[in-house]
Amino acid sequence: MDINLDFIYGHLPYWLFIILMLSGLFIVVSRGNLIKKIVGLNIFQTSVFMFYISIGKITGGTAPILLDKSYSNSDVAYSNPLPHVLILTAIVVGIATTSLGLALIIKIREEYDTVEEDDIQKMDEKDLMTYNKKNVLEFKS
Amino acid sequence: MASEIKEGTLDLINHLPILQVITPMLIAPILVVLNNKTLSWLLSFLGALACLFISVLLIQTVSDGSTLTYSLGGWAPPIGIEYRIDAANSILLFLISIISVIVLIFSYSSLHVEIPEEKHTLFYACFLLCLTGLLGVVATADIFNVFVFLEISSLSTYVLVAQGSYLDRRALSASFNYLIMGTIGATFFVIGIGYIYMATGSLNMMDIAERVSELGDSRTVQAGFAFIVVGMGLKLAMVPLHVWLPNAYTFAPTVVTCFLAATATKVALYVLIRFVFSVFNYEDSFVNELFFFLIMPLAIIAMIAASVIAIFKQNLKKMFAYSSLAQIGYMLLGLSLVSEKGLASSLVHMVNHGFTKAALFMSLGAFMLNTKNVYINSLQGLGRSMPFTSAAFVIGGLSLIGVPGTAGFISKWLLLEAALGSGYWLVAVLIIVSSLFAVIYIWKIIEVLYFSESSESYSEVNVLTLTPIWILSFFCIFLGINTSLTVEVANMAAEILFK
Amino acid sequence: MKHHLILKVITKFMVGVIVLFGLYVQFHGDYSPGGGFQAGVIISAAFILYGIVMGLKNVQKVMPVWFAQKAAAVGVLVYALTGVFSLIFGFEFLNYHAISPEHPKHGQHYGIILVELGVGITVSFVMIAIYYSFAGRTPRLDDKEW
Questions:
Q1: Are B176 and A97 a contacting pair at CB < 8 A?
Q2: Is B200 within a domain?
Q3: ipTM field
Q4: What is the domain range of residue B329?
Q5: Is C90's CB within 8 Å of B33's CB?
Q6: What is the pLDDT of residues B78-108, one digit of tens each?
Q7: B202 phi and psi, to 5 degrees?
Q8: Which of B31, B487, B491, C74 has the most CB atoms lying inside 10 A of its own CB?
Q9: CA-CA distances (angstroms) from residue B491 to B277, B332, B428, B486, C57?
């Protein structure tokens, strides 16, 4: 066995990205608590942000703020700002998703009095049986 | 090109691609500021009408096979965001706009039953944002812009679905599940975009297409493609990734169900088509194998399994949600043939199924206004007491089955032709088997509607509710007789995409 | 929060500073790190801090719920109307040259300030609205159950 340490070390951000992404995805799938699901979703999304930021990194590159107004100094290497901008957008989308998810959880808790997926499912099944029996879905108004 | 736009002149014709997208986006915040129920309906209706008008103009402009490009903010394409309208997306823009107009007519008389009055303004604002998102996804040629618009539409969709909680609290958990699945899908999509950007350094579809073909066999691009297929598979409810769809469609308000069933999944499918044909190289063996070994079997499973499940559902909204899954199977099948005919059939089926499913869900909504529920045995004898709604429902059902003379027939015929043309006769047989299952569940409902005694008598819904239903039913028949709009444009689109 | 005199005094002092810093980030966003997103969040942080320390009722006297909602929509309108402005003058959507056709560079400058203003307004009021909608719901748990 010959392990290419250079390869592993050279791709460190990607390994971290993959570990974070999979743990986030695992939390979403395995946890029954809705809030934990949202946390997992956040970790999952954050891993992608890290991935994008690592794409934008250029060895020896500085912050992408123009130092030389004449645009002529080609010695200065800038990191690629585009992934940063994209991720700013993705972060905003992430915030919207998280707050919407949490708002839904609050409503779910008000209606079901629980945030555990299994309990909600059981109550839904009970609902369904009573609905089938009555076969009438009363309108509130 | 963008430079054709003359600076300093007011010429809105050149700006049609952007006007299509920003019209609903502009109206949505105005609704929130004004905060008036009737006015917000009127404004959203007018906005949707404007969208429809623009989309008709666009379809006329590009129906000769040309493309319209528009560079946002005056930045030329590879750097700036480009909007690109060709035959393929103009047909979808038209579908989305016209469905939104019809759905808004329906919502005027039905929304107050399903959503409390004080939420109407925000509902319409959300609806318009969803419309913006869907139109934007279709119009743009920038892959990150696709993600942004996709999330605009998805986020507002989650909200719209959750509004069903006024009648049934299960809408909340349905919406939550949709949110989790949808966000995972969108994030996979972003990862895919990241890989593509890594490999090509560009976000513009045309630019990427060039660079990808230069790269040849790149593992990075393939990984990106795989991520995008999974992400879009979640959004379009490809079969093993479909679990969010039945509950979301069942518990959402009827207006929302109509709109989503007719547009949202189709837009995700369009994104997949656009990526396969305009971004990646469809002749690439990786793409071809993926379609042959993965998407085609999944599409066939969807066609058969979802149709069978639909037969046993008592809740009609759920029945048609499963039937939607089967129909998505048809569209994916057409795509997975990777032939010009298959793609054209897929595009035609998107439009035809959009009208068909909207007609079915809307007439269900009209039944629901009277019977207060959507279980099959509560429809007993409604064929006599609500003749017009029932007739429209039957037309929609026939179109879903694919009876000659209806829209569904045209697209299924094209799909059969495409499958036989590619030599997959077994697939063709399975398409017919799946249609036979559709006959069973549609017949179940027709039987209850017309051949059973009603326990209660209901009166027909009012004309304003009937109008949109009949417009949709009219389209179900019209598109089955006059195929010039759909088939010709779709053929043109397939030709462009296969260039 | 009846006894926390120090917190209250510090908060009253900090709110102004935070808003000021937010405005700095807002208006220097076009040529230094910053911009509408960051500024919006900073400004909303001031209100949220005030709300946490002084109570929801007090902060809603300063910033009513309806105002936060509508102002968020107005922010979007500012952004969109900047784009429409260039449309009306025959330029592409969001082409800032329309604002000052003789000096395109100035146009870029004004344009980005306007757009960032819209973004800032929207982000800050949306954050405040999110805070209101979460804080406005009293949890059913008692303090002891935590």
A1: no
A2: no
A3: 0.90
A4: 282-499
A5: no
A6: 888 899 998 888 999 999 999 999 999 999 9
A7: -140, 160
A8: B31
A9: 14, 17, 20, 8, 62
User: At a CB cut-off of 8 Å and minimum separation 6, what does A43 contact?
Assistant: A20, A23, A24, A27
- The pLDDT tens digits for A54-95 are 888 877 777 777 666 666 666 777 788 888 889 988 998 999
Instruction: Determine the Cα–Cα distance for residues C85 and B461; give it in Å rounded to an integer.
Output: 45
Closest CB to B179 among A44, A97, A135: A97
Cross-strand bridge partners of residue B204: B142
Query: Which of A86-95, B107-116, B448-457, B481-490 has the lowest average pLDDT?
Result: B448-457
**Residue C134: its chain A contacts at CB < 8 A?**
99, 102-103, 106
CB B402 within 8 A of CB B409: yes
Question: For residue B164, what is the DSSP state?
Answer: G
Could you tell me if residue B199 is inside a domain? no
Rounded Cα distance, B353 and A20, in Å: 40
**How confident is the model at residue B102, as a pLDDT?**
95
What is the phi-psi region of residue C30: left when phi exceeds 0, alpha when psi lies from -120 to 50, beta otherwise? alpha
Domain boundaries, chain C: 5-135
Contact assignment for A104 to B183 by CB distance below 8 Å: no
**pLDDT higher than threshold 90 for residue B232:** yes
Nearest-neighbour CA in chain A from C34: distance (Å): 12
Phi, psi of B313 (to 5 degrees): -85, 130
Per-position DSSP letters for C109-143, written without gaps between them: HHHHHHHHHHHHHHHHHHHHHHHHHHHTSPPSS-T
CA atoms within 13 A on the CB side of C86: 32
CB B266 within 8 A of CB B327: no
Helix boundaries (H) for C4-64:
5-27, 36-54, 56-62
CB-CB contact of B150 with B133 (8 Å)? yes
Residue of B nearest to C101 (CA): B8
C residues 104-143 lying closer than 8 A (beta carbon) to A: 130, 133-134, 137, 140
- Per-residue pLDDT tens, chain C, 146 aa: give them: 567 889 999 999 999 999 999 999 998 877 777 788 889 999 999 999 999 888 888 899 988 999 999 999 999 999 999 988 888 887 888 888 888 888 888 888 888 888 999 999 999 999 999 999 888 887 655 555 54
Cross-chain residue pair A120–B173, CB shorter than 8 Å: yes
Domain spanning A9-60+76-134, CATH class: mainly alpha
Q: Which residues of B338-358 are buried (b: 16+ CB within 10 A; e: fewer)?
A: bbbbbbbbbbbbbbbbbbbbb
For residue A97, give the nearest of B183, B190, B191 by CB distance.
B183
Residues of B in contact with A106 (CB under 8 A): none
Whether B183 and A41 lie within 8 Å, measured CB to CB: yes
Q: What is the pTM of this model?
A: 0.93
Which residue does chain B place closest to C98, by CA atoms? B8
Give the minimum alpha-carbon distance from B183 to chain C in angstroms, rounded to a whole number: 20
* Cβ contact, residue pair B176, A108, below 8 Å: yes
d(CA B294, CA B275): 17
What residue type is assigned to position B217 of the chain? Answer: D
Identify any residues that bridge with A93 across adjacent strands, giving them in sequence order.
none
Give the B:C interface size as CB pairs under 8 Å. Answer: 70
- Exposure b/e, B76-105, CB count within 10 A at least 16 = b: ebeebbbbbbbbbbbbbbbbbbbbbbbbbb
Q: Determine the Cα–Cα distance for residues B465 and B472; give it in Å rounded to an integer.
A: 12
**Does residue B291 surpass a pLDDT of 70?**
yes
Residue C7 touches partner B, C-beta closer than 8 Å: no
In a domain, B443, yes or no: yes
Q: Is residue B486 part of a domain?
A: yes
Contact A137 B373 (CB under 8 A): yes
